[in-house]
Amino acid sequence: MPASLTPPVPLVTLYTTRWCGFCTLARRFLDARGIAYGDVALDDDPAFRQRVFDLGRQWTVPLVVIGEAPIGGYRELVALERDGRLADLLDGPPAAAPVPLSAASSASR
Description:
Elements: E1 12-16, H1 21-32, E2 37-41, H2 48-56, E3 63-66, E4 69-72, H3 74-82, H4 86-91
Parallel strand pairs: 1-2
Antiparallel strand pairs: 1-3, 3-4
Helix pairs in contact: 1-3
C-alpha cells in the first residue's frame, strides 16, 4: 500500500507527573512494546488536576489518550492489551470512538 494511502496511526499521549508511580509504569509498558507516545509533564501546572479532568473526566494521572480518545490510566491501558483491544485502537483511525472509562477505575490509579 502506498504511504499516502496508509491510515495514520493514532498518537498516544500520556499526561503525567514525575512523582506518580503509575505514570512510570505506563511509560515502561509502552516502551516495552515499542509504542511511541508523547509525554506531557504536568508537574509545573498548579491546575493539572483540572486539566486532566477536562481532558479525560478523571482527577488522577496518568491519563492515557489514544488519538482524541481518553482511555483512562495505567490499569485501563493494561486491561486493553489483556483483552486484545489495544492493538485495534492503535491500528484504527485517530477519530475512533472513545473507550468508555469505568466509574470505578478513576479511584484505582
